[in-house]
Amino acid sequence: MKSHGSRDKLQAAASSSHRRVLLLLFATCFALATFVTFVYNTSHFASASGSGAAADSSGGGASAGSGTGAVSALPLPVFDALVHFASISNATHRMSDTDIRAISAVLRARGPCNLLVFGLGAESPLWLALNHGGRTVFLEENEFYVKYLEPRHPGLEAYDVSYTTKVRDFRDLLDAARASRAAECRPIQNLLFSECRLAINDLPNDLYDVAWDIVLIDGPSGWNPTSPGRMPSIFTTAVLARTGATAAKGPTDVLVHDFQFELEQVLSKEFLCDENRVAGSGTPSLGHFVVRPDGRRDAFCSGQDSTAAGTSSEKSGK
């Protein structure tokens, strides 16, 4: 019995020693894993912070040619697939497939970039996706539509805008803008303090400091005389492209949808200028302009009289 008891004690001691070794080994592995995780997270956080700071310094989003290397464009096969399925969609009130492809071509050339879109529509999720890695901001006249879409499309950045203009008044508004082209409605100005009736000056302040690469004008509505029309969005875009951070970064691609209508054609000719229209680009219903800061402070286009109101020949829009 004594011999048997001693053997049990030896086995118990060996078992206890074995457990201590396993416990020590486990503690060592746990400490090593904790240390490796700490080192990785620290380096990853520092890298992310540096990338974020570089992105912030570029004006609130990635811009083509910014050189930060913080973002990458959407892979071309994915880009093409999104455009393909959007162009054959049967969604109501959508753009034509030719317009979708024309806009997408500009986004492919400039993206990822800072993209400003006037109007929310069936294509809004597409523009957000195609500009992957950039900043896309939507301005919409219907605040309820903004509240409806934002929860359904994570990452959508949209703001509601109140417009005071009416389509029926666009000739009078244009004459007034021509008459004050060297004053309130000049091409280079701080829109936040603008008194021009066509200027949009109630956006979030930081949006005026973003270097916009592309502006797509697809709103507000202009289907009837009491609709706000796109006079403010076209005028404001023309000023943005010539002022501040947007002008400093170089040319701005401006795309005007529903270009087949008189208002869009007349206002684009007045503020975006025929000389800036891109030949062979766009479609009959999409005007494509590249606006470069030219330093003119009292005229938007070459040959404009900065002091005279529109004549009857100008009013014809020809």
Structural category is alpha/beta
In sequence order, what are the helices and strands, one letter per element?
A: HHHEHEHEHEHHEHEH
CATH topology of the largest domain: Rossmann fold
What percentage of residues falls in helices of 4 or more residues? Answer: 40-55%
Number of helices: 10
User: Uncertain regions: pLDDT < 50 for 5+ in a row?
Assistant: 1-14, 21-69, 306-318
Number-wise, the strands total 6
Q: How is the main sheet built?
A: 6 strands, mixed
- Name of the CATH first level of the largest domain: Alpha Beta
CATH architecture designation of the largest domain:
3-Layer(aba) Sandwich
Strand content: 5-15%
Number of domains: 2
What would you note in describing this structure?
- With 318 residues, the chain is α/β, with parallel strands linked by helices.
- The protein folds into 2 domains: 57 residues; 240 residues, Rossmann fold (3-Layer(aba) Sandwich), CATH 3.40.50.
- The protein has a 6-stranded mixed beta sheet, with helices on both faces.
- Helix 2 runs antiparallel to helix 3.
- The N terminus and C terminus are likely disordered.
Question: What are its keywords?
Answer:
alpha/beta; Rossmann fold; single chain; about 325 residues; six-stranded mixed β-sheet
How are the SSEs placed, and which strands pair?
Layout: H1 2-57, H2 76-87, H3 97-110, E1 114-118, H4 124-130, E2 135-140, H5 143-149, E3 157-160, H6 170-179, E4 214-217, H7 231-240, H8 244-248, E5 252-257, H9 262-271, E6 286-291, H10 312-315
Parallel strand pairs: 1-2, 1-4, 2-3, 4-5
Antiparallel strand pairs: 5-6
